Each structure stands twice: as structure tokens, then as C-alpha cells.
Amino acid sequence: MKLLHIDSSILGNSVSRQLTSALVDNVRRQHPALEVSYRDLAGAEIAHLSGEIIGANFTPEADWTATQRNEKVLTDELIAEFLAADVIVIGAPMYNFSIPSQLKAWIDRVAAAGRTFKYTENGPVGLAGGKKVLVASSRGGVYSTEQGRLMDFQEDYLKTVLGFLGITDVEIVRAEAVNMGEDQRATAIHAAKSAIASIAV
């Protein structure tokens, strides 16, 4: 079994990093021969899509710039490890009601027409199904309430884009109120880690 472990927090000892580590450890306990690939999207940032990068799709390879050649190699690598993974663990802290831009940059690379999804006369079809995704969602406040859900563009977005790629087996482990005092932070992390221990993969 292959697992792709992705962290996107810009903080070195963030809650989402603690939870992704616990998620990977839990899967490894169940599958001792687990092969793990790791991407720290904050430590080694992926360039956001630009006109130059995306322009390679519409330009003969002989005319590509050095940037286009380098970024094509990286994109192919990201897609290959994404498609090869049976399980994907994603650390997704909430930044300004959504996901970190570093994580969005990764999504923009792996969401590739003809490779992870395709367009048909009946609409788009995901090509990356059969995977399980475990999301470590951390939030400074509380967004699971009726009012809070109106401001949550983090978890719903991830479920939507993964579903677009054909991945419907998505499980979210959430730690909320982590910036609302040490007691609430500790309680949230403890509850999330307890939930992780019961996840079967």
C-alpha cells in the first residue's frame, strides 16, 4: 500500500501537522509495509499557475521556455505520485475561511484534464477514484455550527474538488477552537487524535 502525506501549514509545529503525523502513524500500524511519500508544501512551495506555466499546454515543446520545461517535470511528478497513492493524508488548516494557497497550488497541478479527470458530452468524469483521503482539518475558531458553516470554504471545497477527480471516500478529522485558549486547544487536539485512533484503512 502506498500513502501520500501532504502538509500545507506555514507553521512548523501546527495542529494540522500534528494530526497528519498521527494519521500516517495510524495507517502504518495497520499496514506495516506501508510506503510513504511526503510533500511539505510550505517547506518546498509549488509555484502557483501562471500564464507562462499553463501556456506550455498550448505551445510546441520545442518552443518551451526553461520555466515551462522545469514546471512540466514537476507537474508530471506530482500527478504520478498522486495517482500512485492508495491513501492520501492532507493537512488542511483553515486560512481566512479557506485552505492555504500552498495547498491550492498543489491541487491546481494534480487537477489535470485528461489525466485525473476528463470532459465528456455528459460532463466531467473523475479518473482518480479508488483512493481514500484523510483530511486533517484545523481551525482557530468554531465553524461546525450553523452560523460557522456559512463561512467554511475549506472542508466543502476539498470534498468538492476531490469528488471532481473521482475520489468520494474522504474522511475529515477536525480540530476546532485551537486559537481560543490553551484548554480548548488541548481538548480539540486530544479529541482529534482519539478519533484518528479509530479510523480503519
Topology readout:
Blueprint: E1 2-7, H1 15-30, E2 35-40, H2 51-55, H3 66-84, E3 87-93, H4 101-110, E4 117-120, E5 123-126, E6 132-138, H5 146-149, H6 155-164, E7 169-175, H7 182-197
Parallel strand pairs: 1-2, 1-3, 3-6, 6-7
Antiparallel strand pairs: 4-5
Helix pairs in contact: 1-7
CATH architecture: 3-Layer(aba) Sandwich
Question: What is the CATH level 1 assignment?
Answer: Alpha Beta
Average pLDDT score: 96
- Please report the number of helical segments: 7
Number of strands: 7
SSE sequence, one letter per element = EHEHHEHEEEHHEH
Query: Strands across the major sheet, in which order?
Result: 2-1-3-6-7
Global shape: globular
How large is the radius of gyration?
A: 18 Å
Protein name: FMN dependent NADH:quinone oxidoreductase
Subunit structure: Homodimer.
Catalytic activity: 2 a quinone + NADH + H(+) = 2 a 1,4-benzosemiquinone + NAD(+); N,N-dimethyl-1,4-phenylenediamine + anthranilate + 2 NAD(+) = 2-(4-dimethylaminophenyl)diazenylbenzoate + 2 NADH + 2 H(+)
Keywords: Flavoprotein, FMN, NAD, Oxidoreductase
